Structure formats: C-alpha cells, structure tokens
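[Structure tokenization] protein backbone as discrete codes
[Encoding] learned vocabulary of local backbone shapes
[Protein] chain in single-letter code, fold in tokens
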Amino acid sequence: MTYKRTLLRKNRSLLLNYTQISGYRPFGVSIILTGINHGKAFLYKIEPSGSYFNNNAVVIGEGMEDITKYLEEYYNPQESISDQIISGLKAFKVQNLELESNQVEIVQIQIEEPILFNRLTNKEIETLFNEI
C-alpha cells in the first residue's frame, strides 16, 4: 500500500467514523490532500463526512460551487503552469471577491527528480495578479 493511499484512508476513516457513530461532524472541515506518488501528482478533496474526490482542481470554502463551475469550464491541464495559476486566480473573480496578492500563497511542485517545492514570492504573485 502506498503512503498516499494510507494517508487518504486514515483521514477518511477518522472523519467517517465520527459521522457514522454519532451522526455529528465534529471536525467540520474539508481537507485538500496533495503530493507526489510514484512520479505522479495527486490531488484529493476529503469532505467532513469522509467521502473523497480525486480531481485536477478542487475548491473549498466560500463560493466553491461557482468557482468549481468556472474551473470545470476553463481549467486546462495541458496549459503551462503559469496559465493554470492565472486561470485559478481568475476563478475568484466569479465571486467578485476582492482578493489581493498578499492574501494568496502559491506553491509549485516539480514532480521530476529531484522533487522541488517552489513557493512563489509576493512579488511573483503580484506579477500574476497584474496579468488578470
């Protein structure tokens, strides 16, 4: 069993057990689980009920229904990383959210060896904001 599957199942089981046993959802949070497994990126959304979804783009929080619809229509995994990030930032405009560059954190993960995590600086994020 892979680490991804183990982590996913343990989180799912914990949330699911509380929901089934007591009928409550004491955690009340959704979890976005992402990483790299055997050279492939993965992205899961785990709901408070314990159900989970695997997708290319996920949203949690305020306005997630409208933003999810936007991403389903406009997200293209064949685009460059920069264009994908810009599409993600544009999705917030669907909700007319007054989002500023200092409220956003963006991390790029290189899945080829060596695996690298690159957190964009505020200046880099501001540049992306200027493109939308």
